[in-house]
Recover the amino acids of this structure.
């Protein structure tokens, strides 16, 4: 068959005697204007007024704190805006007491906490205890390792400490890429016979080496 555009068309045969059935939802279970437990309009008005009063009360209760936070941040950033006292457009420069106090406290805490061996690694098994010093040396070297673009871990910790002293708390997100590799080790163990018992050489147990991958 050829269509109006001159392209060949394939005719798909249709099935005959197809039956369609429509089931209407029972009208008795349909509530017009809301569900069965819909809130009446007069209660909506009461709830809306209560929510508005709670919002206004919360905003008013936090108003003093918001003003104090803005003042404290401005003192830390040495921003005071324009001043007209004691004369019009007077100087807004002042002694940076707040920033200097915060930085001095930051340096004092850093001198106590950021010791050369900042990370301490302890093995929970005898095998892990033998190699714990390797992991500890690696993490402490990474802590002060200079990077080309991103700041060092030490600088990130200093910023974290600085913000915590300014705001009372600070959060640092730590992310890393985990890499695993399979290595083969030679492990010496007793040689076992067909009976499942160690093979003896006089009074000594015969040892053999097996390659173990982990």
């Amino acid at each position: 068959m050829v269509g109006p555009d001159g392209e060949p068309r394939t005719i798909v045969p249709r099935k005959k005697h197809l039956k369609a059935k429509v089931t209407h939802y029972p009208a008795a279970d349909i509530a017009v204007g809301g569900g069965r437990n819909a809130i009446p309009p007069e209660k909506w008005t009461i709830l809306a007024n209560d929510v508005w009063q709670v919002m206004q009360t919360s905003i008013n209760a936090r108003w003093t704190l918001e003003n104090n936070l803005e003042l404290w941040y401005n003192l830390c950033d040495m921003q005071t805006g324009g001043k007209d006292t004691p004369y019009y457009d007077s100087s807004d420069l002042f002694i940076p007491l707040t920033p200097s106090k915060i930085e001095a406290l930051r340096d004092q805490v850093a001198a106590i906490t950021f010791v050369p061996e900042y990370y301490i690694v302890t093995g929970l098994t005898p095998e892990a205890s033998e190699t714990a010093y390797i992991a500890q040396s690696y993490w402490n070297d990474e802590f002060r390792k200079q990077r080309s673009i991103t700041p060092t871990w030490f600088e990130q910790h200093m910023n974290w400490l600085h913000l915590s002293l300014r705001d009372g708390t600070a959060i640092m997100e730590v992310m890393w890429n985990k890499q695993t590799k399979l290595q083969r080790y030679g492990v010496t163990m007793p040689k076992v016979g067909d009976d499942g018992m160690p093979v003896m050489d006089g009074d000594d147990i015969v040892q053999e080496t097996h390659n173990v991958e982990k």
